[in-house]
């Protein structure tokens, strides 16, 4: 399979999402979502699909917690490690390259498993959430966002987009069921379609000032417009999920 999240792709994504992020809304989204978590200097966090480290940097800086980040893309991990050292945060942060389903996590148990827009890349959701559950301390929390299927039937354009990217998309209620089957108590499953549209419109506006070759600006503009249209049609959506590992599971 073609390598994803290469240096060139990361550069292009950071130009639109903001430095250190390759997911919608950049640091502002991380701040919004992490306001739902309870973290302090004693917390241990696992960031699944940590990308170039933006959320991990934010958590370590804001709460003083320890974060272990795992990502499949070697270039993302290389950048995350270099920037953590530059920021003087490498004492709190560990970045590991590998497939989350395959790698051993540095700690036996985490207070929070956090993931942003990564699970769409992992088709075997039963195995994914079994591993998440095994990584959590009793009463530990999972917090993640992901692209999800909306209620509207998929157009040919949407189906082609999903197939071309190899995405494994769930619905909001599909995720609820899978999480419950994995022994995770769902405490939040929010439809973020309106926020998805607003964030992508803001990013589109910002693109006019981005320092990118015109071909990249044109490419991203077309992609972002299509994402906004699919969300407006109710085909593509964005979900925020939180779930607790019940004691004894
Ligand atoms: C959309 S990016 C989001 C990155 C980061 N969470 C952020 O918000 O900037 C998705 C990330 O998931 C990673 N990824 C995909 N499949 C993975 C897997 N099986 N294990 C670990 N990381 C994975 C990709 O390499 C990529 O960095």
Written account of the structure:
The chain has helices spanning 7-17, 26-34, 54-63, 74-86, 125-135, 156-165, 172-181, 193-207, 214-232, and strands at 44-48, 66-71, 93-97, 110-116, 136-149, 170-171, 184-191, 236-245. With 249 residues, it is α/β, with parallel strands linked by helices. It has one domain (7-244): Vaccinia Virus protein VP39 (Rossmann fold), CATH 3.40.50. Strands 1, 2, 3, 4, 5, 6, 7 and 8 form an eight-stranded mixed beta sheet that branches. Strand 2 (66-71), helix 4 (74-86) and strand 3 form a beta-alpha-beta unit. Helix 2 (26-34) packs across helix 3. The longest helix is centred in the last third of the chain and has 19 residues, at 214-232. The model has no long low-confidence stretch (mean pLDDT 96). S-adenosylmethionine binds next to helix 3 and strand 2. Residues 5, 21-23, 49-51, 54-55, 70-73, 76, 99-101, 116-118, 121-122 line the site of S-adenosylmethionine.
């Amino acid at each position: 399979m073609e390598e994803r999240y290469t240096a060139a792709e990361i550069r292009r994504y950071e130009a639109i999402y903001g430095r250190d992020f390759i997911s919608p809304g950049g640091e502002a989204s991380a701040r919004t979502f992490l306001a739902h978590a309870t973290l302090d200097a004693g917390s241990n966090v696992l960031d699944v699909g940590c990308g170039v480290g933006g959320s991990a940097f934010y958590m370590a800086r804001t709460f003083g917690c320890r974060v272990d980040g795992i990502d499949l893309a070697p270039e993302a991990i290389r950048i995350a490690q270099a920037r953590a050292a530059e920021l003087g945060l490498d004492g709190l942060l560990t970045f590991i390259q590998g497939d989350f389903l395959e790698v051993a996590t540095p700690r036996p148990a985490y207070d929070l498993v956090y993931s942003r827009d990564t699970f769409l890349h992992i088709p075997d959701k039963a195995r994914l959430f079994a591993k998440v559950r095994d990584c959590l301390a009793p009463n530990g929390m999972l917090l993640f966002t992901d692209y999800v299927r909306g209620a509207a039937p998929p157009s040919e354009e949407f189906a082609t987009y999903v197939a071309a990217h190899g995405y494994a998309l769930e619905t909001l209620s599909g995720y609820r069921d899978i999480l419950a089957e994995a022994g995770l108590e769902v405490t939040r499953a929010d439809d973020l379609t309106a926020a998805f549209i607003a964030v992508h419109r803001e990013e589109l506006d910002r693109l006019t000032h981005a320092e990118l070759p015109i071909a990249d600006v044109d490419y991203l503009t077309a992609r972002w417009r299509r994402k906004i249209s699919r969300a407006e049609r109710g085909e593509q959506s964005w979900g925020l999920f939180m779930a607790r590992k019940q004691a004894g599971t």
